[in-house]
Amino acid sequence: MKAATAGYVRATSLSHAVTLLAASKGQARLLAGGQSLVAAMNLRLAGETALIDINGLSELGGITADGAVLRIGALTRHRELATSPLVASLAPAIAQAAPLIAHAAIRTRGTIGGSLAYADPAAELPACMLALGATIVVAGPQGLRRVAAEDFFVDLFTTALAEDEMITAVEVPFAEPGERQATLELARRSGDYALAGIVLARKADGPRIAFFGVGPTARLARSAMAVLASGGDGEAAAAVLDRDLDPPDDVHAPAAVRLHLARVLLRRALAATQTGDA
Amino acid sequence: MTDMPPDFARKVDIRLTVNGETVEARVDAGRHLVDFLRLDLGLTGAHAGCEHGVCGACTLKVDGDIVRGCLVLAAQLDGAEVWTVEGLTDSGALADLQDAFVARNALQCGFCTPGMLVAAADLLADGGVPSRAEIREHISGNYCRCTGYEAIVDAIETVARARAGTEAAA
Ligand SMILES: Cc1cc2nc3c(=O)[nH]c(=O)nc-3n(C[C@H](O)[C@H](O)[C@H](O)COP(=O)(O)OP(=O)(O)OC[C@H]3O[C@@H](n4cnc5c(N)ncnc54)[C@H](O)[C@@H]3O)c2cc1C
Ligand code: FES
Ligand code: FES
C-alpha cells in the first residue's frame, strides 16, 4: 500500500518547525527517521498525514559531554548511538541497546527523538531513559522545558508532549565511576521487537532497573529496586517483580511467560553487571 | 485534509544523483524512494515486498548508508546520492558477490537478491572476515522466501575470505 500524504514541508530551523507544528493544529506530524511514521502511513494507520521534515535541522544533532550530562540531539540516529565512543563510555546501556533496535538498514535512519516520541512499549530507548534517569528536552511555542523520563512516558504510544511540542535532545547523567550497566532482551528473531527486555544501571546507592515489552510503557521496577538497595539478592528481587510488572496476554506471549522472561532477564543482567566486591 | 497552512506542498521538486547521474524530478510528497526509482526512473532492481520495513527487498544506498527504500520518501532526497543494484553492478562493486551467489546457488527466484547483495556489500565494506553469526545478524532484516539462507551466508563468507586473501597477498 502507498502512503497517503496531505503535504510536505522542510523545516529550516527549530523555531520554523515549532511554528509549523503549532499552525497545523495537530494535523501534521514531524518526520524524523520515518522508520515508524512512514511504515504506519504505508499501512494507512496514520490517516492522511501532512509532514514536517526536520532532517535538515543541524541543531537537533550531535552527541556532547556537557558538565555532568551526555547531551544527545533528537536527530541522532540509532547507528550513531551504537558507534559513539562518548555513549559507550558515559552511557553504556544506550550503546548496548542501539544494536538491538531493528536491522542495520533501519538503524541508519531511525532517531532517538523519534523513538522516544513514538513510545512503543517494546522499544529499547525509553527504558534506557528511565533506568539512566535521563531528562527529555522539549521545545514548544513557549520555549524549552525539561521533562524527567519518569514523567515523559504516560501510556501506550502516549507521552507528555503537547500537540505543539517536539523533542530537541535528551540529557543523560554520566555513569558513575565503577557503575556497570546492561541492556538485555529476548526476541524471537534478531531485529524483532523484544518479547521482554531490561536496562539495569548499578549505582552506588542502589540499582535502577527498567523493563520494556512487558506493559503499556517502559517502566521502573521499583519493588525490585528497593529489595536490592536494602541488600536483598537477585532471587528476592525476582520474586517481587509481579508487583512491578503487569504484562498483557497477547498473540506473542501469555502474561505468565513475559513475567517469567522478565525474571530471567533480571538474573542475567545482575550477573552481567556483577562487580568484584558485589 | 482542509485548512493546511500554505507551506505544505503536495508536489516537491528534488535534484539528486542516482547511480552517478543527476536527476531532477517533481514528486508526490508521499512517493517512496523505491517507487520513485522503479516507476519514475525505470530502475526496477530494488524490489518492493512488504512496504513496511520488514523484508529488506527494497534495500538501497543513500549517501553511503543502506536504507529501506519503502521507508524513505523521495521528497526527502534533495541533494542526496543514491545507488541501486543496477549502478553498483555497472561499477563492478558487486561482481565477486554476484559470482559467488551464482556459484553457491544463493538465489532461486531472485526476488530477495538485490536487497541481499546491497546489504552484503555494506557488511563487507568494513573489511575483515565477519563470522557466520555476524553475517546472519547483518542480513537478519532481509527475508528470502525461497529460504536460501545457508547458501547466502556461504556466498558472503566466500567473498569475505577471498577479498581478505587478495588484500593479504597484495
Ligand atoms: C521492521 C522494523 C523493526 C523495528 N524494530 C524496532 C525495535 O526493535 N526497537 C525499536 O525501538 N524500534 C524499532 N523500530 C522502530 C524504529 O526504531 C524507529 O526508528 C523509531 O521507533 C522511530 O524513530 P524515527 O526517527 O524513525 O521516527 P519517525 O518514524 O520519523 O517518527 C515517529 C513518531 O515520532 C514523532 N517524532 C519524530 N521525531 C520527533 C521529535 N524530535 N519530537 C517529537 N516527535 C517526534 C513523529 O511525528 C512520529 O509520530 C522498528 C521499525 C521497523 C520498520
Ligand atoms: S519492501 Fe521495504 S522492507 Fe519490505
Ligand atoms: S531467492 Fe527467492 S526470495 Fe530469496
From TrEMBL, chain A:
Residues 1-177 form the FAD-binding PCMH-type domain. Keywords: FAD, Flavoprotein, Oxidoreductase. SUPFAM superfamilies: CO dehydrogenase flavoprotein C-terminal domain-like, FAD-binding/transporter-associated domain-like. PROSITE patterns: FAD_PCMH. Pfam families: CO_deh_flav_C, FAD_binding_5. GO terms for molecular function: FAD binding; oxidoreductase activity. This is Putative carbon monoxide dehydrogenase medium subunit, coxM-like protein. The lineage of its organism: Bacteria, Pseudomonadati, Pseudomonadota, Alphaproteobacteria, Rhodobacterales.
From TrEMBL, chain B:
SUPFAM superfamilies: 2Fe-2S ferredoxin-like, CO dehydrogenase ISP C-domain like. The keyword DNA-binding does not apply. Gene3D superfamilies: 3.10.20.30, [2Fe-2S]-binding domain. One of its GO terms (molecular function) is metal ion binding. Keywords: 2Fe-2S, Iron, Iron-sulfur, Metal-binding, Oxidoreductase. It holds the Pfam family Fer2_2. PROSITE patterns: 2FE2S_FER_1 (PS00197), 2FE2S_FER_2 (PS51085). Residues 12-88 form the 2Fe-2S ferredoxin-type domain. This is Carbon monoxide dehydrogenase small chain CoxS. It comes from Polymorphum gilvum (strain LMG 25793 / CGMCC 1.9160 / SL003B-26A1).
